[in-house]
Amino acid sequence: MTEAAGGALTRIAITGSAGLYGRALIREIRRTLPTARVLGVDRRAAVGDAPDDTVLGDICDPETTAAIETFRPDTVVHLAYAVQPGRDAGRLQADNLDGTRCMLAATVSSGAGRLLVASSATVYGAWPDNPPRCVETTPLRPLPGYYYSAHKGVVEEMVQGFAAAHPEIAVSVTRPAIICGQGVRNFLSDYFLGIPVVLLPDGRNTPLQFVHHEDVARATLAILLRSARGPFNIAPPDAVTQRQIASMLGVPAVPMPFAVMAVIGRVWWALRLPWLAMPPGLVGYSRHSWVMSSDRLGQELGFEFEYSSAAALGELIAGDEGRHRSRIG
Question: Which of 237, 238, 251, 281 is positioned for an S-S bond with 146, CB 3.0–4.6 A?
Fold first, then answer.
């Protein structure tokens, strides 16, 4: 069940507003709520899809908090997070964990009635005993050794405690699958677009889900418009196996012992070798399924995905908007 809170959705503060998720959400807000005003908080200025007002700086800077308080948002969306691989553990923790703590405090001090925090499907971990489809109540077990999912797990614990302490605020969390689409560029997209071969860990043909950035933005706004609470998986119903990914990329799929893959990943990262800038802990997510069900989005909010996993990945590969687009239904 959802519970109304926060009043009208008219003043929205978005951290990480210059990133992929933030820009897609701003586009959706412009389309759906043309009179809403958006405050963007980021270390860099947006290139396209700019917010109405921008605060350039760290989300833990007192000046940033003051700017959010002055803006008086009815809604705070916290998307700021270190996605690209980094080697400075202290910096990553400051960006991801300390940044979240500062934003939780700013949500209270600014008087916002809604808070949405972006998490990730990786919080479920890729374990051999995972259910066929992870649902929002499935235990969170991020794989050790990968800072991104480990930090997301801690963030979710923080947000859960915050929600319990502030029942007057409608607190929600999004857990997107791998975000894809035309123009998406990060270390994961570079990996999929550049690999000469798809490695099958221990010969497994693991399924993966991909979600289009437009669907992520639409789902996020649907959650906010209903002042929904709690976590929401964001992934289309289908999944793409590693052999199917290889076929789409036009490269071979080659079985390899997982232990060898793990060693290669660690050595590659340690030696800072070119081409593959991927943290070694991430290789574990290719070994077992972490496919999700997004039934809660459909059942409670009536949300329907416009893109399948195959279409989202296909659009990334094609680099041509609409070429691999498909409607579900």
Answer: 281
